[in-house]
Amino acid sequence: MSYPTPMIISNLTTALADKSWDALVVIGESFINVLPEPFNEIITKQAEFDSRINKELTSFISEDVNQTRVILAPIGQTNRYFDDVRSYYDAAKKAASLVLTMGAKKPLLLVLGNDKSEYQNADMVSYLGFSQALWQPLEAREAFGDSIEPISLVGVVSNTLNGGDAAALESGRYVARDLCGTEPERMSPPQFAEYCVEAFDKTDVQVTITDDMAEIQTEYPLMWAVARASIEVKRHQPRVIRLEYTPEGEINKTLMLVGKGIVYDTGGADLKTGGHMAGMSRDKGGAAAVAGFMKTVAELAPLGIKVVAEIAAVRNSIGAEAFVSDEIITGHSGIRVRIGNTDAEGRLVMADLLSKLREEALDEVNPVLFTVATLTGHAARSVGPYTALVENGVSKANGYGELLVEQGDLLADPCETSRSRREDYEFVQPRTKADDLLSSNNGPSAVTARGHQFPMAFLSIVSGLDKHDVNDADPLPYIHIDIAGSGVEGGDWQHGKPSAAPISALFGAFINPVL
Fold this sequence. Notes:
Strand order of the largest sheet: 7-8-10-9-13-17-14-15
Radius of gyration: 24 Å
Number of strands: 17
Helix content: 25-40%
Distance between the termini: 25 Å
Structural class: alpha/beta
């Protein structure tokens, strides 16, 4: 496992004079009259016969430049109200692909920022975008070796970027892409657990794997129901993965996250048809992001903040033992759940874990609870490529959702908040006294009104968090994070590169302030 380590160089003159770098990548709005001589003259002369400069990605070779290869990556406009720092991220991704095509292995990144506050993290964002393009899937690395990722070091000219923060954030994003983007046999539940054990070896994160089937059946009955058809295939058996970081000294805040790790989703008895099963190996994107965030925490070891994550790694298989709609299953909290659709399995595998963390949270310092999941097509339909946040009253009162939106915007990991409403809670109410809660309707979420909001209400009730809202005796803030629209690039769940959302937003909101 190797991501490109950032080497921060604070002096521009020193960086440009260093011949050990074999490509100079300049990212900015304009490239004329912004660089010192002789670079300005070289670019100006190039622009006389290449009208692409300042308009689109451009490269040329110059013996007068110490790095020889020059890539100019324009970011486009920044003066419109809807422009944001993602333009740096996107430009860096394009530049990285060109660097690889040109055969460079040690690029120097020069980011021409501006004074606008929304672009204050342009250096960090450019490095992250550059690294995103360089990542290759785990199966490809195992097939072709380390040479498939030839760039192990990236120089970044910056007076503001903290190299340790950038490296830690990219390390977590790398883990998330590996776990999300891997095919279902290579990253089956046991393999997911093994990857986590290796990733957190010799760190301050304690890894605990629950692999006893009797214990899972007893302690996580809703998760067990989803896993039932996979139990007889040993390599597909479920795992509960707990990752826990406890800092030295005083604790001021506790983050508690649950990740949906459906390593493959057939839809179960409500089988996915019409080609909609392809790409469902990425239905573990929420769990992947949770593990990736924990990797960033492990690398930084921040003081004052405790982080606990639990991952439900499960295969939603089809077979004689598959659970079916209309079953009534009593969850960890004692709530009796009527199954509305077996393809709405993600909320079920997270429910018991969230219930257990809710109990733990009562004894923690300033806890904030999260569920992170590729949960609904409705989220992708509603907010497109953005991460959807649905929070309870306590979280809203504390401004946690808006904090994630703010920090996500600054770190090219954008989020949008969706209000939780009374209709969401009414939607999952029982229709008879035979059960306490309905898991879902039997139609696609994408065509269901409030299709990504009502699952948060289900999770709140099934975990017992509805008894800990803003007007209750022991209020607990809770945010449901749906990355169905943001988890892969371009919305292509079969072939798109995992985006590692919402790791950067979580880092900016909760980890960066304490560093």
